[in-house]
Amino acid sequence: MADRTHIVSVCDRYVELLTAGDHEGIVALYADDAWIEDPVGSERKVGKDALRAFYATDHGVTPVMTRLGPVCVVGNEAAFQFRIDIDLGETKIAMTSTDIMTFDDAGLITSMRAYPDGEANPDA
What we know:
- By secondary structure, this protein is an alpha+beta fold.
- The chain has one domain (4-117): Roll (Nuclear Transport Factor 2, Chain: A).
- It contains three helices and six strands; from the N terminus they run ααββαββββ.
- It has helices spanning 4-20, 23-28, 48-56; strands at residues 30-37, 45-46, 64-74, 77-87, 92-103, 109-117.
- Strands 2-1-6-5-4-3 form a six-stranded mixed beta sheet.
- A hairpin with a 2-residue loop joins β3 (64-74) and β4 (77-87).
- The longest helix has 17 residues, at 4-20.
């Protein structure tokens, strides 16, 4: 099982890579057969090709992500929140997402579920 320090570092790297728009770097954090459900309730994207296609969809914006609070680790699972800031020119959006990830023994992400909440303003 991956240790806590490694899992926290992967979660932080994930947030950094999202901000950098490094889609290949993000996909490299995942196991080959990993799946994501982003947002929760949407169809799962399974395997690296599906993940690559998902993360490459940036809709012409580059959000800035910042972790909020600690990464909570129990066994091979982690939960953490991060702030999402999107600058659309005259309009700026700030929201919070909670992501829950599972990890394999090598420390790769095997699943991720995202709970983005547009009404969870991190400034409130």
